[in-house]
Specification:
The structure is a homotrimer.
Chain A: E1 12-14, E2 20-22, H1 26-46, H2 56-78, H3 91-105, E3 115-116, H4 121-141, H5 151-174, E4 179-180
Antiparallel strand pairs in A: 1-2, 3-4
The structure holds cobalamin (3 copies), 5'-deoxyadenosine (5AD) (3 copies) and magnesium ion (3 copies).
């Protein structure tokens, strides 16, 4: 099958189960922004390929899991409210993020201030992914009653906190610089 | 001439031919998002500088062409409906994307599933560019009657498919990892 | 204190001084987009870590300063109109951008045309940051009367010009390719 069908050239597209909607439908905006978050997580992964440290595999596995669950979030968003979601988002997916945050955070200094995003390119990518996840969260708020599963917003909310901790954790292990904000300038 | 003029500090700016519009006009949003797509394609190019393989130049040329045509798309979007567009987008620009997709796709395994965006940093950047091109496409839908040339939406639609294939093609040549989605987790 | 509080899981959040607003409030969209710009500047910084040239520290300092001032911009956007802003944006922050643009621009060839964003990964990241800063600027236009300090729009307007010059300046010093647009294709 060809990747391009030309059937979306007039501005309409299909949800799961086939319902046609305009491409600027808020649902499409929402799962499109999850796709963008997913791709930026992929950028972080791509920046880790040539690095080695004990515990690297745990980070990679966690990021692959995030990518996978973002397809579950996407399925929730792309399925009309009256149809069954085939890849259901579950409470355990949020629990898993929280457990990982708690475990990684133990190694990190406690923060009393904002930090300037930077350090290793993988960490910097995770900061960018964090801000795109927050954009995705904002779009889901605009869905109103079209969003039936409240776990979607919880997951996206926790995801940006996970990505913040992941950025710091990568910098900690790879010697990436973490600068606190200084406002007295 | 100075790059900054301060004339846009009050929130208005100029289209081609000089008409003043607010910076949050849907036209400005549309060509601004093309500019963002263009810059992310530039990120992909920047990640290829130190790589070598037979056929690399063909990829670089295709990406430079995309950047050039995005300025044509931008010109279509920044020209008021009653004026002549000076850099016209043509059907042959879409045909060229399709031919390139078809040629590159021959080397790639057929997909039966979504893939997790990642691999080489250039490929990951192309995945991100793909999702920004789709955002640009969504904005053009919101332009309604302000968008007179239907080729703009066709081009942006095909562009995201091209960028998907380009990401896979770069990973194929540079040994970037391509993981299929597994939803049984 | 834990990074995640779960209190935003229902779609509301707090401004500075505590007022609750929906997460898709235009203020939140505005400072969220500044956070995204900030993170992409961090990506540029992360790509400079392994480079050396005389004058590198000046570029790093200027980018750290931009990140710091973006928190001031964020504070302006996150403070309700009837409350005092604690990290005030000042005219001197804009002056500083202009002075840096003027100084760096002297080393660069004058442009008679658009350029294709690319070159060194840090420069490419600065081009992307430039387009996100412009997106942030567009969101602030949508704030209407909620935006009381006119310096916010001036700063964001100048910031995208600064980031354009910074991208060119980094390419100039690191031998990154700068291609002019050719529309005769
Ligand atoms: C929603 C959706 C998306 C969402 C994903 C939603 C989510 N779950 O997160 C997003 C925006 C991410 C997306 C992206 C893309 N999509 Co899409 N998507 C769909 C849609 C509407 C539903 C898919 C879905 O989630 N199904 C839910 C599951 C439970 O049902 P399923 O039928 O078993 O799903 C299977 C297939 O749909 C998919 N699949 C099967 N063959 C292929 C082939 C390709 C190339 C791809 C990418 C997927 C794919 O794998 C799933 C099995 O695990 C389908 C069209 C449709 N109505 O089915 C298109 C569809 C699968 N997408 C398609 C395409 C081309 C893409 C993109 C390449 C577009 C682009 N240029 O960016 C990307 C690929 C992203 C990636 N990383 O691989 C095409 C695939 C055409 C083909 N067979 O070659 C389809 C069929 C639409 C079409 N043109 O008709 N998509
Ligand atoms: C639409 C537009 C854009 C769109 C592009 C639309 C598209 N086609 O895709 C986008 C959003 C991408 C854009 C970006 C920028 N733009 Co602009 N843009 C314009 C605008 C309104 C029309 C340009 C156009 O497409 N003309 C269509 C062609 C057919 O007409 P043309 O007159 O022959 O176009 C020539 C020049 O406009 C341009 N050019 C000539 N000198 C210079 C100098 C510079 C520095 C640049 C960037 C371009 C440029 O090259 C074209 C010849 O091929 C002009 C203002 C105006 N009303 O003309 C500003 C203008 C060209 N832009 C300007 C600037 C500063 C920029 C940015 C640097 C802003 C930023 N900080 O990001 C970037 C540069 C991006 C890049 N990669 O080079 C300035 C240039 C000032 C100067 N001479 O130094 C102008 C004149 C606006 C102004 N301030 O008055 N822009
Ligand atoms: C607005 C805001 C933002 C804006 C920034 C606005 C700006 N100025 O540019 C943005 C969107 C960037 C943001 C991002 C984040 N934020 Co915030 N933010 C706030 C908010 C509402 C106001 C902060 C502010 O600007 N205060 C203005 C100054 C003048 O007042 P201040 O009280 O002295 O500010 C101090 C602290 O707020 C902050 N601080 C103190 N302890 C900690 C701990 C952490 C982990 C962080 C990040 C900050 C922080 O440092 C300031 C001193 O310089 C507060 C909640 C609140 N109502 O106070 C949350 C808050 C500070 N943010 C929080 C979090 C978790 C984050 C993010 C990690 C979220 C994410 N996942 O992305 C990021 C971190 C970004 C970074 N680079 O460090 C938490 C911190 C919880 C904690 N103590 O562990 C808070 C308290 C909200 C909450 N959950 O209750 N945020
Ligand atoms: C840390 C601060 O970030 C803001 N906040 C909470 N959620 C989002 C989001 N999705 N996008 C942008 N900003 C957000 C709130 O003001 C919070 O207190
Ligand atoms: C692959 C799937 O992506 C969705 N789709 C089509 N066009 C866009 C776009 N511009 N942005 C986001 N999603 C889109 C449709 O649901 C399509 O079937
Ligand atoms: C260089 C050109 O970019 C456009 N322009 C000005 N400000 C913005 C912005 N925030 N976003 C997108 N485009 C903008 C105007 O058309 C200007 O002339
Ligand atoms: Mg949150
Ligand atoms: Mg499409
Ligand atoms: Mg401007």
């Amino acid at each position: 099958m060809r990747i391009y069908t030309r059937s979306g050239d007039k501005g309409k597209t299909s949800l799961i189960y086939g319902k046609r909607v305009p491409k600027n439908d808020v649902r499409v905006e929402a799962y499109g922004t999850c796709d963008e978050t997913n791709s930026m997580v992929g950028m972080a992964l791509s920046q880790l390929v040539n690095e080695t440290w004990e515990g690297k595999q745990e980070v990679i596995d966690a990021l692959h899991k995030v990518q996978t669950i973002l397809f579950h979030v996407g399925a929730e968003l792309a399925t009309p409210s009256d149809k069954e979601v085939m890849w259901k988002l579950k409470q355990e997916h949020i629990d898993h993020l929280e457990e990982t945050i708690d475990r990684w955070d133990q190694d990190l200094d406690e923060l009393k201030n904002f930090i300037l995003p930077s350090g290793h390119p993988a960490a910097a990518s995770l900061h960018v992914a964090r801000t795109i996840a927050r954009r995705a969260e904002r779009v889901t708020i605009s869905m109103g009653d079209d969003l039936t599963n409240p776990l979607v917003q919880s997951y996206l909310n926790r995801l940006s906190d996970f990505l913040f901790v992941a950025a710091r954790y990568v910098n900690y292990h790879l010697g990436g610089e973490e600068l606190p904000l200084h406002t007295d300038i």
